[in-house]
Design goal:
single chain; 277 residues; alpha/beta; seven-stranded parallel sheet; three-stranded antiparallel sheet
Length: 277
């Protein structure tokens, strides 16, 4: 036996490890499942295996992962959308209608001028605006926010002067609210507020299930000379328990191309400027 053969026997050649599925593809598939749940309320393992050409075990793993984050309810053979009004974690919310939120944020960021003071309300679409702000060619911008995740996104931007409300943090939304936050807001002034929405009813206005955050948003509205609602099309024609802003308190809505045409027409009749991203 040669020295080379002995070395080969001592250190046999290892087979390469099987390739793992790319995390991005997993994320895209799970985001697609959430979109499907949002549109039809329930899904089955069988239909998802056919749609994505993967095994039933893979789909069951996807549904289990989504259910663990609170994005859906597992059922025998599939999953159900969580009941309307349930409080989804922000990690789940940011996966829903993500591309639409990015386009809405790009359009919203184009409204921001150098030297302004703006308010970014808590939410996943307003967080996308914060990401857009990072790349704006500005010299100075004051940003008021009650959202911890938005503050983190803007904390190291050289031209941004960041002002946080403080108050009591609700981890589910990364949002501060409460009397301390409201008292601070009353001392400030803003050129424009970008307001997210859990629901937008063409008759009543912007609505939310979160009472304390609604109270803070009302204070933010009162110090803002302009209010821009940023909401993807899934938020239209929905109601919730607490009114955040009446339609006469809103100047503009930025939404996406899938928005209900009749709802948009009614909003325009009520005096809102509507822009489609």
């Amino acid at each position: 036996m040669t020295a080379t053969q002995a070395q080969a026997r001592k250190h046999p050649k290892r087979e390469p490890a099987p390739a793992r599925e790319d995390d991005l593809l997993i994320g895209e598939r799970r985001r697609g499942i959430l979109e499907l749940l949002a549109s039809q309320s329930r899904v089955t393992v069988q239909e998802l295996t056919q749609r994505y050409a993967v095994s039933a075990a893979t789909i069951r793993s996807d549904l289990a992962a989504l259910a663990a984050t609170g994005a859906c309810e597992r059922t025998h053979g599939g999953a159900l959308v969580c009941r309307d009004g349930e409080d989804h974690p922000i990690a789940v919310k940011r996966t829903l209608h993500h591309l639409e939120k990015q386009r809405i944020a790009q359009l919203a960021a184009g409204l921001i001028a150098d030297g302004q003071t703006i308010i970014l309300d808590s939410g996943t679409t307003t967080a996308e605006i914060a990401k857009q702000i990072r790349g704006l060619p500005l010299r100075s911008l004051n940003v008021i926010t009650n959202a911890l995740n938005i503050a983190v996104l803007l904390a190291d931007v050289p031209f941004v002067r960041l002002i946080m409300t403080g108050g009591e943090l609700r981890p589910q939304s990364n949002a501060f609210s409460g009397q301390h936050a409201e008292s601070m807001i009353e001392t400030l002034d803003a050129d424009c507020m970008f307001l997210g929405a859990d629901a937008l009813d063409p008759e009543r206005g912007v609505m939310t299930p979160h009472l304390m955050e609604a109270q803070l948003a009302a204070k933010m509205l009162s110090i803002s000379r302009r209010v821009v609602v940023v909401a993807d099309s899934s938020k239209l024609l929905r109601r919730n328990i607490r009114l955040v802003a009446r339609l006469d308190q809103v100047d503009m809505l930025i939404t996406d191309a899938a928005a209900n045409a009749k709802a948009l027409a009614k909003l325009r009749e009520r005096g809102l400027e509507v822009r489609i991203a």
